[in-house]
Design a protein that fits this description.
276 residues, alpha/beta, 14 strands
Length: 276
């Protein structure tokens, strides 16, 4: 298990990424759903200020402060720079929780900012397009890796070993950055340039039927299909689905699987908690 996701458009959205103990958005009901898992979360990233993405924050902080668990663990919260609504909400929460048992660090972030993570990873912030005047961001987890330098890629294993014994690993290896995960938040389709080479794409898909969309502030299934003609992630997780499509989800997932055979698909059902 890497992800635990609950997402029902308009009602609640949150994504827990276990390997790095990260939470993306903090919608209603998260504390009850995750239970003691909330104590393992080290960093919380908020995509934007809409209530279905932040309503669970007060309960989350209060539960961590009072329930039976490791209440002394620090918590870092990151939100879009200039989002007055989130700033006001955080100030209210701090006022209502004056005696926290843990250290709470709050920081604004914007496009291009990089947050260090554990295990040779970092998180990069990118700007997204959602509603007019709304500060919104997406996230990308990047891992530093090593590979053979181009001039040594046709050498045999024995030859590589001999070179390493004589000159060390740095002679044959180069460091590079690998995009592990890209998370869209609520937005129009993310640019292929941002997603390119990402192993996992977690993208919102509010509208399965294009005809149901009145305003261009979310992504439709047709736009996801078009996006996937430019990129080839190993895995795609679609979330923030409108509950009007409960009966169409299996059909949509089957259609995607048949159209893009090299991609593993998961659609987060609006009425369920998905473990992926």
């Amino acid at each position: 298990m890497e992800f635990i996701i609950r997402s029902k458009a308009l009602y609640t959205t949150w994504i827990y990424y276990k390997p790095n103990r990260l939470l993306f958005d903090v919608g209603e009901g998260i504390s009850a759903a995750l239970g003691n898992k909330i104590y393992s979360i080290e960093k919380l990233f908020i995509t934007h200020s809409h209530v279905d993405h932040i309503a669970g924050l007060w309960g989350f902080i209060n539960t961590r402060n009072n329930a039976m668990g490791s209440r002394e663990k620090d918590l870092e919260i990151y939100y879009p720079k200039g989002s007055k609504n989130i700033e006001d909400y955080l100030n209210f929460i701090k006022k209502m929780n004056k005696y926290l048992r843990f250290k709470l660090y709050i920081k604004e972030v914007e496009h291009g900012d990089i947050i260090p993570l554990k295990n040779n990873r970092c998180l990069k912030i990118f700007k997204t397009r959602h509603t007019p005047g709304e500060k919104s961001i997406g996230f990308q987890i990047i891992e530093k890796r090593k590979r053979l330098k181009p001039e040594y890629r046709n050498f045999s294993g024995k030859e590589i070993k001999e070179i390493i014994l004589e000159n060390g690993k740095d002679e044959v290896l180069e460091e590079y950055e690998k995009k592990i995960i890209t998370i869209s938040g609520d937005s129009l389709p993310i640019s292929p340039d941002i997603i390119e080479d990402s192993d996992t794409l977690v993208h919102e898909c509010t509208f399965i039927k294009e005809s149901d969309r009145k305003l261009r502030n979310h992504t439709s299934l047709d736009e996801i299909k078009k996006l996937l003609t430019y990129i080839s992630p190993k895995r795609v997780i679609l979330y923030h689905i409108s509950s009007r499509y409960n009966r169409l989800i299996n059909k949509a997932e089957k259609e995607l699987t048949e159209s893009f055979k090299n991609i593993e698909f998961h659609i987060v059902h609006p009425e369920e908690i998905s473990i992926i």
